[in-house]
Structure formats: C-alpha cells, structure tokens
Automatic annotation (TrEMBL), chain B:
Protein topology in the membrane: Multi-pass membrane protein
Highest taxon in the source lineage: Bacteria
Domain ABC transmembrane type-1: 86-303
One Pfam family here: BPD_transp_1
Protein's recorded name: ABC transporter permease
Gene3D superfamilies, alphabetized: MetI-like
Recorded family membership: Belongs to the binding-protein-dependent transport system permease family.
Keywords carried by this UniProt record: Cell membrane, Membrane, Transmembrane, Transmembrane helix, Transport
Compartmental location: Cell membrane
Record-annotated membrane-spanning stretches: 21-44, 90-111, 123-146, 225-248, 282-307
Length: 301, 316
C-alpha cells in the first residue's frame, strides 16, 4: 500500500480521527491487559499483600510462596501430568486423522468425496446431544478411562475443512507429475504434500492442543477417579468451588480468615499462571500461521 | 479420466464403483478411520435420539425400550422450569450477540486504520491472548477479582466508601458479567477474520475515494465496512444457528444458588436432570436436547435462506 499518498493528503479532520482511533485501541489494550498483568503481579506477591489489597499493578513484597504452594500440591501436579498426556496423545491422533480425512476429500478424482463431505459437515449443525452421547460412551465402556479424554474428540470437521482447502490450493501439476512418475497416492501424501503443509499442520496442532488443554466438560461427565482428572477439573475445585464458599461466608472474622486464606488466595493466582502459561508462551510463535488458518477456514469453508 | 467415463455408461454402476475402489484403494483406506469415527461418535448418538420418544430403561437398551410418543416433550413444555430456562437462554444469547457481533468488527476496522505498525501488532498480540485462557481460569479470575472480601473491584468500590457488591452471587449482575467477560476474552480473536478480509481490500478503491475527497472516516464507512459485510453475514448466520445451544461450561461454572433465577439455561437444566439428580431421567433430558437441536437447526436454515435470498450469501 502506498502510505505516502494517504499521509500527504491528511486533513485536520483525518488527523483527529486517527488520534481518536488510536486512543480507542489504547483503551482496549489497557482493558485486556490489566487483568492479565494483575494476575501475574498478584502471583508474585506475598500472601498478606494479596489479601489486604495492596497489589494494584506491580508485585508487592515479592515472593514465590504461591508457586511453592502450587508445586507442592499433589492433586495439581497429578492434574498437570494428566493434561500433558491428554494434550500430547490427543493432538497426535487429531492431526493424523485430520490429514487422513482431508487428503482424500481434497482429491478431485476421489469419487465419493462430496457425499462423504456432506455426511461430515452435517454433524457441525446437528447432533445427538449430551444424553445419547453419554449412553454411547457408557456402552463403549469408556467411562472413567483415559480413552474418554481422547477418542470422543478425535476429529473436528471444521479443521478438516481448513486442511482440505489448504490441500486443494496446492498446484495440481504436482500430483500429475508424481502420478506420471508412478508415485502412489500414499507416497504422494507423505513425500510431496505433507512437507508443503507444515503451516497448516502447525495451526491444526495449536487448535487441537488448545482444545485438549482447556477441555473440561468431558472430564466432568465421564471421569470419576482422582488419578485421571485433568488440570481443568482440579482448577475448578480450587478456583470456583472454593471461591463460592469464601464469598458466601458472611460472619467470619476477617483477620482470622485473612491469615488462613492468605496462602490459598495467593495459590489461586499462581495456579492461574501455571495453568495458562504453556499456551500463552507457545502461541505468539505460530500466530502468523493461524491467522492464515482462520482465514482459509472461514472464507472458503 | 472423467471425460472418458461419462459418455459410454456401459459398465454398471456397481462395476465402476468396484474399479474405482481398486484404483484408489489407498484413498479409501485413509478415509476409513475418520469415517468410522464420524459414524460412531456423531451418527450413533443421532440414532440414540429416539429415546426422546421412549421410556429409556438401561437394561433394555435404546432399541428395546417402549415407545411413549411425545410424552417427554409435553412434560417439558408444561414444566414450571420451561419458561424460565427458555427465557434465560434466549436472553443471554441475544444479549451476547448484540454486543459480541459488532465489537470485533469495530476493533478490526480500528486496527486496520492505525498507521502505527508496532502499536497495531502489540494490540493484536495482547487482545488475542485471552482466547487461550480456559473457561475455568476465566471464571476463576472473575471470582478472584469480584470477591466481596479480597477482590480488587470491591476494594476499589470500598475506597469510594461503598459497601462491597456480591457480583458473582447476583442475578442482575450475572448476565452482564457473562456477556462482557466473553467480549474481553474473544473480541481480539474474533477480529482476526475481519482483519484478514480487510487486508484484501483493493488499494485502488481507497485511492479513488481519496480523489473524490473522502475523509478517512468516510473511507472506513464506505470502503472498509462494505468489504467485510459478506463475511459478517456468514458469521452471523453461523451464530444464530447456536442461539439455543448456549455454551454449558461457563454458565455452569458461574452458576450458584443465588443467581439461579437468571443463570438457569437449557443446558444446565438438562445437566442437572441427568447427572446431578438421584433419579436421572435420560429420556426426558434427551427430549429437551432434541427440542433444542431442532430449534437451532430450523433457525439456521431460515436465516441462511433469508441471507441467500436478500444478501446472496449463504452457507450451502
């Protein structure tokens, strides 16, 4: 774009509008950023600073007490390990199945592709719902097993569509040339198509791992054993269920409560950080990829 | 290849299918597993939906249970909770849509308009980030910030000499908290799609508008905005398709006995009936779920039809 042209012809009114525009963006930035910064600062403060409300922007009486409490909590660590497993195993299965579905569906010489695509796409708009799914999971014997966190979410039709569109946009000469060379369909996928598709695979892996990392509903419905619970269920217990108790207690001596609650309040902030940091650290690196991914999927899907 | 096959349809369909199967067996093999997954985990539950018209008995299974017609639907329509859950569900979705639909568009237009590239990049990086926070953490943060005892919001209110507000235990606040926390979390992410459309806007159109003496603001209104309307319509259609299937997780996590009158929605009601009750009635819950899906699907088809007729945009 020729920015110079725009700049040269800026009137006073334009400049005013641009200023208002940037102030608006700055306000949005503040609104989104402040809660995040507050959580980080609180998590590095001392228990007493957190409960007495001394933290406003920067950490007060810096300490790692909260993080120590998180790492010495057994159920949090078990949840963390479980979530890591569900995320890694689940994402690998997701990516493999998505490619296995998207590739034939992207091939114009694959005859049943339109029928199969319709069968797949219909499930985006209509489903059996919670109860019939629950009965199915029960009949399959998946209740309270590790499989239940992986198999029911093994594939997302939306991601198939994104990947299929990406595959379709690769030059068809590639396929023709490979076929002339006697390359089989499978060989073409593995040696030609996949090496070209790293960006879309990165995007899919991100989408799927976010889904697994944050998955909560399936665990709530299908898991009973403590040693299988993912992080999100543990988080719910500490962040949500306990918070209700605290806020509902009306006539408790505040100082006594503060002393007792000090560490557990601090732990919550540290826990929020520990639970969110892996994804937040990871995402800026593939940001440029997923913008493309979202675009392909939404426009051509 | 296709051109050759079409003119003389000599060999029977079955034979041609067989030939195709042999020639392309690797493709069929690849799609086999995903296809099985879709059938098992998506179409079996649809088959299981018939228990909405039956009295499901676990020992007799889905097929063996006796038919009862529309009994469960009638029970739901006449139950005292019916009006409440429908009203809350529709209110929350429409409120969310009215606020949540335009804000990402405005954000994208503003981002597209700024001349400070670095600033734009940082706003993008920061506003996308909350999308990656889990619902549990988001609701946990709300409990922390809004807690009457230690929460920063109530401490601020206290500085002005007011009594703490029980935000999370208030039926009035529930709706605003639900909708606006969603805006906080998703506005950046939702703006991505509009931004990418804006990046494809032809520079010539802007040039022409400049020549015509259009101000920056006018160009946003008459060049940028029209460019994203088709995408916006598609997304609006998709969103209306979920008008009755309000996300369960966040409502459930934010719900407590004190805000129940505005937070009980179809999905939480259904969850309680089937998983938090001592006498779960699967058939009744399945009927509610079915009613829900049918309404969604019908609305989706109607809105899609309208968009096709008047806006020339449609999903299918």
């Amino acid at each position: 774009m020729s920015m110079n042209v725009y700049n040269r012809r800026m009137t006073r009114q334009d400049r005013l509008f641009l200023l208002a525009n940037d102030i608006f963006l700055f306000l949005i930035l503040l609104v989104v950023l402040y809660p995040l910064v507050y959580v980080v600062s609180a998590s590095f403060s001392s228990p007493s600073a957190v409960v007495t409300g001394k933290v406003w922007l920067f950490p007060v009486e810096p300490s790692l007490a909260g993080y120590k409490a998180v790492f010495s909590n057994k159920s949090i660590m078990t949840g963390y390990a479980n979530t890591l497993f569900y995320t890694i195993a689940g994402t690998m299965l997701n990516v493999i199945l998505t490619i296995a579905a998207a590739y034939p569906l992207a091939r114009r010489d694959f005859k049943p592709r339109n029928v199969i695509m319709m069968i797949f796409a219909f499930t985006m708009f209509f489903g059996g719902g919670i109860i019939p799914t629950y009965i199915l999971i029960k009949n399959l014997g998946l209740i309270d097993t590790r499989w239940v966190m992986i198999l029911p979410q093994a594939l997302s039709v939306f991601n198939i569509i994104i990947t299929r569109t990406f595959f379709q946009n690769t030059p068809s000469e590639l396929l023709e040339a490979s076929q002339i060379d006697g390359c089989s369909d499978m060989r073409y996928l593995i040696s030609v198509l996949l090496p070209l598709s790293k960006p879309i695979i990165a995007v899919m892996a991100l989408f799927y791992s976010v889904m697994h990392w944050n998955a909560f509903f399936d665990a709530l419905l299908y898991l009973n054993s403590d040693n299988l619970r993912p992080l999100q269920l543990v988080l719910r217990e500490i962040l949500v269920v306990n918070s209700i108790d605290v806020s509902m207690m009306q006539n408790v001596n505040i100082e006594e409560l503060a002393a007792r609650q000090g560490l557990s309040e601090l732990l919550k902030y540290s826990l929020i950080i520990i639970a969110s940091v892996p994804l937040l650290l990871f995402y800026p690196f593939i940001q440029r990829f997923f913008v493309k991914g979202v675009m392909i999927g939404a426009i051509k899907g | 290849m296709e051109a050759k096959a079409r003119p003389h349809s000599g060999p029977s369909l079955l034979k041609r299918m067989k030939q195709d199967l042999v020639a392309r067996y690797q493709l069929y093999l690849l799609i086999l597993l995903p296809f099985t997954y879709i059938v098992v985990f998506h179409y079996f539950p649809m088959y299981g939906l018939q228990i909405a018209f039956k009295d499901f008995v676990a020992t007799q299974g889905i097929t063996g249970s006796p038919w009862v017609g529309f009994k469960h639907f009638e029970n739901f329509f006449t139950s005292p909770s019916f009006e409440l859950v429908i009203r809350n569900t529709i209110f929350l979705t429409i409120y969310g849509l009215l606020i949540g639909f335009p804000i990402p568009i405005i954000l994208a237009l503003a981002l597209n308009n700024t001349l400070r590239t670095k600033f734009k990049k940082s706003v993008q990086l920061i506003t996308y980030a909350p999308h990656f926070i889990s619902v549990v953490v988001l609701v946990g943060m709300m409990y922390q910030f809004l807690s009457p005892k230690f929460g920063i919001v109530n401490q601020l209110i206290g500085l002005f000499g007011h009594d703490p507000i029980m935000f999370m235990g208030s039926e009035q606040w529930f709706r605003h908290l639900y909708v606006w926390s969603d805006i906080w979390q998703q506005m950046g992410w939702s703006s991505i799609i509009y931004l990418s459309v804006l990046s494809t806007v032809d520079g010539d159109q802007h040039e022409a508008a400049i020549v015509d003496g259009a101000s920056r603001f006018r160009r946003v209104l008459h060049v940028d905005l029209p460019a994203i309307i088709p995408t916006a319509v598609i997304l609006l259609i998709l969103n209306t398709g979920y008008i009755m299937s309000l996300g369960f997780e966040k409502v459930y996590l934010m719900q407590n006995t004190m805000n129940l009158s505005s937070s009980e929605v179809i999905s939480t009601y259904l969850y309680k009936l089937s998983f938090a009750s001592s006498l779960p009635n699967y058939s009744y819950s399945a009927a509610i779920g079915f009613f829900n899906s049918i309404i969604n699907f019908t609305i989706l088809c109607i809105v899609n039809g309208l968009a096709k007729r008047y806006g020339n945009t449609s999903l299918w």
